[in-house]
């Protein structure tokens, strides 16, 4: 920095010193071979590695702040001393190239939760950002594209950088889906079945709206109750094990119940019939119950033949599956009427071929038929089973047969009837 002599000097030992190591005195040899001792005050800039032989990476910055490349750097550089004398210093400068660093990965695309290994090439040592260690597998913690930068240092200490991008995919994707089991009608409670695929799925979040009970749920297959007609949006949000969410929505229409009127309440005598009428302004299906005494159980208008007081209920289901019901009461005047025909003709003409017990409200019975010799030729305890005029699989001859009928009616009355019936051919 400060040289107080105007002669040209070279260092005799070629040793390079830092500012701390440089001694206050150093022996110089002058141009005519004489020895003398010169005291120098020397300040070494941090970028200066030494005098006589200086190494730099691609370029070198001199102590006055100017930067030179190897081609631009002159063999001589003039320093101005304190007293205005000029001195010439000759320096040898070696320029080291920057390393051609590459950033390499074991895979450019991985699934979230998998590991990837990053390695550098083209230098001596490598330092990665983000805490990544060169050649050591690690697990990226973010789904998406992440960029990693490596700094490579050559043996000469020169540095260069390179970057690489890694795509982290959520391979546990979910395709959310569901179905609703049940008619979407006011007053109905329906089951929602989850049909989602993929995953594994870690959680479910349902949103139904304020008019549906409940309005939200975290169950996989919730049940909801429909309280008001209208159009609603059902939303399903699924969350996979990585925390990613997938959403689907479906619009539903909740229908009001159909109108229905059943008529007429009436009173009939035992053995009589009652007209049953149901009416709705909408299209749909009818169903009467109990159907055992109804002529047409799925007709809107039909006839009932009750043997005791009966309440008939008609159920109507419209095109949307919405169901409503109404009822008709039929009161029966009990008139005892039971007996056996006085004649029958088992000639297979389809008219009066079988001898049946006649009557209504019979809850239990025993019917026996005897021939003129007192032999029992037929017996039954079922009103719908009658005698066909045969005995031991042979047709009986025409004649008069005696019968005995024991019975019990639905009002609790019991009795025994006896009589004769003529078999005609």
Keyword list:
mainly beta; 50% strand; 4-stranded mixed beta sheet; 5-stranded mixed beta sheet; single chain; 425 residues; 41 strands
Give an overview of the whole structure.
With 425 residues, the chain is mostly beta strands. It contains no helices and 41 strands. The strands form 14 sheets. The chain has a 5-stranded mixed β-sheet, with no helix packed on it. Strands 11-15-14-13 form a 4-stranded mixed β-sheet, with no helix packed on it. Strands 17-18-23-21 form a 4-stranded antiparallel β-sheet, with no helix packed on it. β5 (59-61) and β6 (67-69) form a beta hairpin. It starts with 9 loop residues before the first strand and ends with a strand. Mean pLDDT is 82; it is low at 1-13, 16-53 and 73-89.
